[in-house]
């Protein structure tokens, strides 16, 4: 907020400026009318420097706590799970996870603007723990942790070769990191996004990112989906950034589900993870499958010239996995 300078204050500032002529240029800039930025103090959960940490893992024997033999959910099979804890104060709040082709090395982010990297340890086909885990602060273009400028709530992640894309929900921005230039020590580059991204509601902004690789429909496109940014018809706002057909589109919202994450399968299908919660019904989780390779995956709404997702309702029913679980007190 820019303050209004009165005549007396102007004269006082001018006198102070004249008396500082002998000072170095940096000192004179510090005494200019714009006050220096207020330092942001990191809280106890912020990662301020790269550090190796120990993470303890407890097996989750069943996805369905009421029936341990229930392992098939639609076309999916539950293989294994881990409950993770650590004495490191900055561990937790993980909001995105991506694996290598072997399903071992991982890159994860926390909503406090931190990287967590490491390796999943398997026994046969089941996960049993984590190893070689490191925490590091996410750096901005200036080389400082992004939390130093008030950027946090890093919610979404997408990989494209050596590039890692991170969506910051509270400020509705996307950073691109080139991990070939220092791995988690690389600096984030602010991406140019559609103007409508900035208009997404507070704390309901960019929640999922997917980069479409070469050889697929929409190759070179960054798909950015909002958690609960709604269009005029109550559907979820999303964007195609770059690629052959950039623009805005909507994903049909049903049963009050919000978008939580998304990933692209090698087959070309886009899996969209959605969730909802109510005190009466508990937590709801479902996965929607969308085929990017469909003959006409996009259609244009003539009323607003925006893109909407073209789908059949029968396809949604066949491709949606829903699991509802009662919420239990922690």
Q: Could you characterize what this model shows?
A:
With 330 residues, the chain is mostly beta strands. It has two domains: 1-36, no CATH class; 40-325, Neuraminidase. It is 8% helix and 42% strand. It contains three helices and 23 strands. It has helices at residues 7-19, 25-30, 313-319, and strands at 51-52, 56-59, 72-73, 76-77, 82-85, 94-99, 105-110, 114-123, 126-137, 154-160, 163-168, 173-178, 189-190, 206-211, 221-230, 236-242, 247-251, 258-264, 269-278, 282-291, 298-301, 306-309, 321-325. The chain has a six-stranded mixed sheet, with no helix packed on it. A five-stranded antiparallel sheet has the order 1-9-8-7-6, with no helix packed on it. A hairpin with a 4-residue loop joins strand 16 and strand 17. The chain is globular. The two termini are 42 Å apart. Residues 1-37 and 294-330 have low confidence and may be disordered.
Please outline the helices and strands:
Elements: H1 7-19, H2 25-30, E1 51-52, E2 56-59, E3 72-73, E4 76-77, E5 82-85, E6 94-99, E7 105-110, E8 114-123, E9 126-137, E10 154-160, E11 163-168, E12 173-178, E13 189-190, E14 206-211, E15 221-230, E16 236-242, E17 247-251, E18 258-264, E19 269-278, E20 282-291, E21 298-301, E22 306-309, H3 313-319, E23 321-325
Parallel strand pairs: 17-22
Antiparallel strand pairs: 1-9, 2-5, 3-4, 6-7, 7-8, 8-9, 10-11, 11-12, 12-13, 14-15, 15-16, 16-17, 18-19, 19-20, 20-23, 21-22
Summarize the structure.
By secondary structure, the protein is mainly β.
SSE order, one letter for each helix or strand: HHEEEEEEEEEEEEEEEEEEEEEEHE
| Poorly predicted sequence stretches spanning 5 or more consecutive residues | 1-37, 294-330
What class, by secondary structure content? mainly beta
In terms of quaternary structure, the protein is single chain
Largest sheet: 6 strands, mixed
Give the strand line-up of the largest sheet.
Answer: 14-15-16-17-22-21
Regarding CATH, which class of the largest domain? Mainly Beta
What average pLDDT do the residues reach? 79
> Helical proportion?
under 10%
Structure annotation, total helices: 3
Distance between termini? 42 Å
Shape type: globular
What proportion of the residues form beta strands (DSSP E)?
35-45%
Q: Could you say how many structural domains there are in total? A: 2
CATH-defined architecture of the largest domain: 6 Propeller
- The CATH topology of the largest domain is given as Neuraminidase
- Rg over CA atoms, rounded to whole Å, is 23 Å
């Amino acid at each position: 907020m820019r303050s209004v300078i009165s005549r007396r204050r102007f004269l006082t500032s001018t006198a102070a400026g004249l008396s500082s002529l002998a000072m170095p240029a940096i000192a004179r800039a510090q005494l200019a009318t714009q006050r220096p930025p207020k330092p942001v103090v990191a809280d106890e959960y912020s990662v301020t420097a790269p550090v190796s940490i120990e993470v303890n893992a407890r097996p989750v024997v069943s996805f369905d706590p009421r029936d341990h033999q229930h392992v098939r959910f639609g076309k999916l099979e539950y293989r294994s799970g881990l409950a993770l804890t650590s004495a490191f104060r900055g561990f937790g709040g993980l909001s995105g996870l991506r694996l290598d082709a072997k399903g071992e090395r991982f890159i994860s982010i926390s909503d406090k603007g931190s990287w967590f990297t490491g390796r999943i340890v398997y026994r046969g086909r089941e996960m049993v723990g984590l190893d070689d885990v490191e925490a590091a602060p996410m750096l901005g273009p200036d080389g400082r942790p992004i939390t130093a400028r008030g950027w946090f709530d890093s919610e979404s992640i997408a990989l494209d070769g050596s590039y890692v894309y991170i969506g910051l929900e509270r400020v509705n921005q996307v950073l691109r990191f080139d991990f070939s230039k220092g791995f988690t020590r690389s600096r984030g580059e602010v991406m140019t996004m559609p103007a409508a991204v900035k208009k997404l509601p507070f704390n309901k902004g960019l929640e999922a990112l997917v980069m479409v690789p070469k050889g697929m429909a929409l190759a070179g496109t960054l798909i950015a989906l909002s958690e609960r940014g709604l269009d005029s018809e109550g559907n979820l706002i999303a964007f195609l950034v770059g690629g052959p057909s950039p623009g805005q589109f909507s994903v049909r919202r049903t049963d009050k589900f919000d978008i939580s994450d998304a990933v692209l399968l090698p087959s070309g299908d886009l899996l969209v993870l959605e969730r909802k919660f109510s005190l009466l019904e508990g937590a709801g989780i479902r996965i929607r499958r969308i085929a990017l390779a469909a003959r006409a995956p996009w259609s244009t709404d003539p009323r607003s010239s925006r893109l909407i997702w073209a789908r059949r309702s029968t396809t949604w029913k066949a491709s949606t996995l829903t699991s509802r679980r009662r919420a239990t007190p922690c």
